[in-house]
Structure formats: C-alpha cells, structure tokens
Amino acid sequence: MFLSNNKVLLNTGFNKTFATFETPDYLYAAAILFFILTALVVIATYYTLQAKSKKHNFKTNIGQSLESWITEVIINDSSEDVTVPANFQSIFTKPEARQMLVDELVRNKSSFLGSVSDNIIKLYCQLDLNVDSVVKLNDHRPHVQCQGIHELCVMDQKDMLRKVYRHTNSKDNDVRIEAQTAIIQWHGFKGLRFLDVVSNPVTEFQQLKLLELLRQIPFMEMPKLNTWLQSKNDTVVNFALKLAQHYKQSHVQKEAEQCLLHKNDTIRLQAVKTLAVIGDLSTATLLTLAYPNEKFTNRLNILKELLTIATDEQRDFLVIQLHEGHECLKLASAKVLAKCTTEGMEVLEAKAYDELNPYQHIYLHVKSEAAR
Amino acid sequence: MKILIAEDDSLVLKTIELLLKKEGYEMICCSDGMDAMEKIQTQQPDLIIVDIMLPYFSGLEIVGKVKQNLNSVPIIVISAMGQQGVVDEAIKLGADDYISKPFNIKAVKSAIQRLALTAATA
Question: Per the CB 3.0–4.6 Å rule, which of A85, A147, A213, B4 could disulfide with B28?
C-alpha cells in the first residue's frame, strides 16, 4: 500500500516537471542549444581534419626532397660543413620539419656504421638538432622525455651524459628505462654506476634489457657489485645477483650468501640461483640450512640447484626430504639423491619396495629420466 | 654491372643506391618483394641484394625462387642483428653472402666485389 502510494506521488511529480518543459518556450530554447552544439562539433571536426591534412601534405611535400637531400649529405666524403639549401632554410625553422629530419636521421643511423653513420651525427649536430633533443628532456610529458633521450643516445651525444644521467632515477618507468639504456650504451659496464643511487625500481623487464645490452659489450670489472648487493633498493640487489651469476663474480660470494636471509622472496630465490654458479664446496650445505625456512617455490628452487652442486654430504638431508612435504618436493629430492650421491638410486629402489605409494612412481620416474 | 637492391626502408635504399652508383654500378631499386620479383624477371640483374624482411614476398622467398630459376645470379641477403637463424636458412636456400644491419658501406662494397669476381671467374 505504502509502496504503491509512493509510486503515484513520483509519477505525478515527474509528469508535472515534464509538463513545464513541454511549453513552446523551453522547446524553442532546447532546439537552439542543440543546433549550436551540433554546429560547434562540425566546426571543430572541420578544423581538426584541416590541420591534420595540412600536416600530412606538408610531410608528403617535403618528405621526398628532404630524403634526397639527407642521402646526398650523408654519403658525402668531404669534411666541410653542410650547406642547407635555400628552400630548406625556412622550412627548418618549423618544429614539425625539424622533428621529421630528426626522425629520418635516427632511423637511418640505426642502419649504418662507419662514414655514413659519422656523417649522420655531423648533420644532426650542425643543424642544432641536438639542442632540440635536449629541450625535450625538460618537457613535462614522459613520452617526450623518452624521445629526447632516445635521440641523444642513437646520435651518440655522450657529452649530454649529465643531463641524461639525472633521468636514470626518474619517477616515470619509461623515462628511467630509456635513460639507463642510454647510459649503458654509452659507457658499458661503467655506466652501471646509476645502481649506486637509484631508488626507484629496476623492473624485471629492464633487468633483462640491461643484461642483453651488456652481453654485447666487452666485460669490465664491477668494483661496486658488493655494494649493490647490500642496496636498500630490492630490485638493485636482485639485479646485482643476476650480474654476479651471469659474469661468475665469485668474489661477492659472501654478500650473495647474506641474500639468502633477505626478507624479499624474489631476492632469496635469485640468491640460490646465483650461489649455485659462484659458490664453493660449502654452498650446498648452506642451501640445505636455508631450506627449512623457505616457502614451497624456493624449496623447489633449492632442490633444482642442488642437482648441480650436491654431494654425498647432502645425502641425509635428501633422504629426510623424501619423507616430507609436497610430492613435487619428494620427487625433486629423489632426483638429486639419484644423480649426486653414491648408491642414491639403490636407496630409492629400496624405498619403493618398502612403501609402494608414492615411492614406486618416484623411483620409476627417476629411473626413466636417468636412462635417457 | 647491374645490381638489383630490394629494401623497404626508402632512405637506406636511396643511400645504398647513391653510394653504389658512385662506384660505377648500374642500380635497379625495389621497395617490396613483388616489385623485386618482377624486375628480376624483366631486367635480369647480375647481382641481387635483398632485405630479409620485405612486404609481399620475403627475402627468403625471393632467394628460393631465384635460385630455382636463375641459379647463377649471386645473392646477398641483408639481415638485422641477431637473425642468425634466418641467415642460415637463406644460405641453405642458396644465398651467396649476407650483410648484417647496421652495416658498414665498406662491407657492402667488398661483398659485391668478391661476388662479382667469383661470377667473372666461374
């Protein structure tokens, strides 16, 4: 009853309000407003398309002649300065034309080495395009900053190191990546010094990218590696562990061992992988000591790494693990036992006879793997 | 000597064209695989330089087809750094040499001279 009364009241209110707006004055005003709005949208669309088409025409018109001019300049053997043709002089005052030129040069620079590449850099500097790139570094938009750093990096403007360097700890992820990449491309392993101060994360993607970049550069000692392993920035510690692993830096073994006690799971996981490469005879025992405090993933990881470094000394530990935890861990322990300890396979066989499930499956699995 | 070059990057194409023209070679330029296939048949070049990544027909397809029909024409493939697998495939298909990007123009010239010499003595 109450509900239906309310519905009636609402309906009446709505009808009254609607009736007010139904008067000719209101409808007339609404029609005019609608007309004005439509006209504004049409005008805005027209001007946007006009501007786009103007930009496109400009690019098409100068594109061909610009390309021919650049080609002639960059294959030129003479050491004299480049003379800009009269028809380009006025064009090169326009920011979009200058950007087009930079884009063409950057694109071409990546395809050539030797004299052609040198000429591209010469042209870039002579037309003060490097100044344009530096201006971009101070832009508030991150993508523009990235563009500026990329241009300076490709054009080998190493004297801009200071200006680019401050972006290695930028709050923006992309800017940081671009700046760190540029520094490594210019200075190789020495460029890694940004790890001393970087407080923002070095993402997993960036770590992979940097390792790939470093792979193409001749190796140089990393005297600060032990400091990076004690950094307050967890991603720096993780990356330093990866560097120690890839470049077999056994002199930081002690610092890497400390990372086994780190509060961050990812770091402990990486520390196990690193120690398996740079460790000594005591490493396997150390990993078995860390094992009870670890979570499932890192336990599995430890067993996986033990597969390459375990000896008879770990036999008792492995036999205990055969009886404890998840079946995946039992299988992983069985694999290490069979591969790294004397008569490990016999231990598994005896276990399979004593207790059919799951040890017979585990034994057959390990046996078939060993036969491969 | 007539050299056909197929490369989709117009600036790179133009640069190589001008550099080799300066060396006295006659150049035929194509920016895609279809154009390259047509010009190979109609203009019969003495040497072919082909980028692996081309629109319509890839560099590998061109190498395969050319070596089936005109086995004696030497081919140089252009590959990007780190495409060793593709380069190996091109060599298997019959490519005679390869140049990696970014390339030094001196390396291009010496590869051409080497192949021209081999073709002349064969």
Answer: B4
Outline where DSSP puts E strands in chain A: 112-113
Residue A249: what are its φ and ψ, rounded to 5°? -90, 80
- Neighbour tally for A345: CB within 10 Å: 17
Does B10 reach chain A within 8 Å, measured CB to CB?
yes
Cβ of A71 and B103 within 8 Å?
no
Other Cβ atoms within 10 Å of A339 Cβ, number: 16
Q: Pick from A108, A114, A115: which is nearest to B11 by CB?
A: A108
Strand partners, B30: B6
- Contact residues, chain A to chain B, C-beta under 8 Å: 67-68, 70-72, 74-75, 104, 107-108, 110-117
Which of the 8 DSSP states describes residue A127?
T
- Digit-coded pLDDT (tens) for A206-235: 999 999 999 988 999 999 999 999 999 999
**pLDDT at position A92:** 80
Find the distance separating the first CA and the last CA of chain B, reported in whole Å. Answer: 16
CB A165, CB A191: distance < 8 Å = no
Residue A21 pLDDT greater than 60, yes or no: yes
**Which of A68, A70, A111 is nearest residue B9 as measured by Cβ atoms?**
A111
Cβ separation A113–B104 shorter than 8 A: yes
List CB contacts (< 8 A) between A63 and chain B: none
- For the entire predicted model, the pTM comes to 0.76
Q: What is the DSSP letter of A218?
A: -
